Amino acid sequence: MKLLLFSDLHSDFSGASKLVELSRKVDVVVGAGDYGLARRGLDDIIAALSAIPKPTVLVPGNAESYEELAGACRSWPNAHVLHGSQTTLDDLAFYGIGGGIPITPFGAWSYDFSEDEARQLLQDLQPGGVLISHSPPRGVLDMSSDGRSLGSEAVREIIDIKKPELVVCGHIHGSAGQTARLGQTSVINAGPDGIIWEL
Asked: CA–CA separation, 123 vs 158, rounded Å?
């Protein structure tokens, strides 16, 4: 299966147009959160992305809530919005968790979860498949531009236990567009430009 992976678009309409074009070359599109800007502009950027003709699996970032994203995608029939939940496409399981993990310093507008809340949201993840997490695992593709490791312990723990085939994340812009391995698992901090990945 050929996937198009992206995250942290932040209302870049030119970038959205490029993703729509790239999507024609793949089977499934995966968005790992932060489509708008600080709880603004979500409906418009989702409307632009809804031109993607392929099944698209989305999780909220910290810039939009699950409820806001699900509402914005209501008229996009190919969209599958996940948060502590799973969908299966062509026999491949996709499990999603959104939001900033751990809680960010950004304040009330940011859609965030504690590590314990994240552990609860991740408890139904099955082995294998694709995990889509807005936040990267602690110590992997989570390095900020000022050199701090900002990833999630809960996400790291579940990868170690369940060993998904692929983890798609974003959130930490300083690591955007990079790939790594965590044991048997490929981890990709997708970034806004889009990465094509074959499973």
From this structure: 8
CATH number of 2-198: 3.60.21.10
Query: DSSP label at 174?
Result: G
With beta carbons less than 8 A apart as the criterion, state whether 58 and 80 touch: yes
Which amino acid is residue 9, in one-letter code?
L
Gyration radius of the chain over CA positions: 15
Q: Do residues 20 and 51 make contact, with C-beta atoms less than 8 angstroms apart? A: yes
pLDDT at 64: 98
pLDDT tens figures, 145-173 = 888 899 999 999 999 999 999 999 999 99
73-77: long-range contacts at Cβ-Cβ below 8 A with a sequence spacing of 24 or more?
73/46, 75/50, 76/46, 76/49, 76/50
Dihedral of CA 163/91/194/46: which sign? negative
Half-sphere exposure of 72 (CA within 13 A, CB side): 24
**What's the start-to-end Cα distance of the chain, in Å?**
5
Kindly state the tokens that stand for 9: 């678009």
* 69 Rama class: left (phi>0) / alpha (psi -120 to 50) / beta: alpha
